[in-house]
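We treat protein structure as text, and this decision shapes the records that our systems exchange. The tokens are whole numbers drawn from a learned vocabulary of local backbone shapes. Below, we set out a record of this kind in full and without editing:
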Amino acid sequence: MGVPSQELNARRLRFLKGLEDNSVAIVFSGYPKILSEDEDYKFEVNRNFYYLTGVEQEESIALFIKAEGEEKTFLFISPFDETKEKWYGKKLTIEEGKEQSGIQNILLTSSFNSRLEAVLNDEINLIKNVYFDDSEELKIGSKQYVCDYIASLKNRFPLKNYVSFLPLITRLRMVKSNYEVNEFIKAIESTRLGIRSVMAECRGGVKEYELATTFSKVINDDNEYQGVSFNTIMASGVHAATLHYPNPLGTCKQGDLVLMDLGAKHNHYCADISRTIPVGGKFNEFQKVLYEIVLGCNKAVSNFAKPGVTIKELNDLAIEYLSSECLEAGI
């Protein structure tokens, strides 16, 4: 199920409210990046675009116009291409775009440049500001990044004021709606199921990648193949000393610990949790001491966290707690 139209409309209204009068904002969904000569990486939509439109399709563009007391939003999607659809699957129709995004002004991407130039080229120079996403890695064409596109706009319309909308949308996205909180809860529940399955399979002789595969299968069964939040880290024994351990080829040994850093996602809302478990299901006496110290730290930080407390203050508390408890335990 996609993002409800009411939710998307509320987001767009807040976004438009944050723009200066007499402005346009251009938001690109992105373009697939090349993996090899004959394959692209799996496309991941620009999250700012998805936040405002609910659309995941590559090569799409949202255009926001705020001028003369009016606010308009347009969504541009790719035209029908029989060859592309044969190879890569069906794309959105105009009607599907309306239903998925809640935006009624749906046009084809082939008309985007002419539409934008008509807005920016007005004789009375009504539009003063052009807002854009200045993420350096945002690819918007086969050989074009967003910075290239903005540079070309600056050459054609040098009198406009070019402004990044990232500070605005970051502030908006930091405050989560009830819908978003529920999406996180769903992602966390899938993650919980995956971790419980890993715990049941974690025994001597099992490969790290087998545990990672177990996690992936369980969450995909639960979240309808929406996948992991990021590449799963499954590190046993000394491998856990590598924070982003990349190659889970080791074999779990009885008496070792397994560090997992993982998460499931639901409609692009991602869970992210780290847990350490004993191979075979039981901690030895020394591991129990460490576990209780870390658990106590977790509870202390959770209890201290409240509005107004900074990340640095939370981190300082954790360092102080762990240091004092480890010294007291003779570690």
Q: What stands out?
A: The chain has a mean pLDDT of 95.
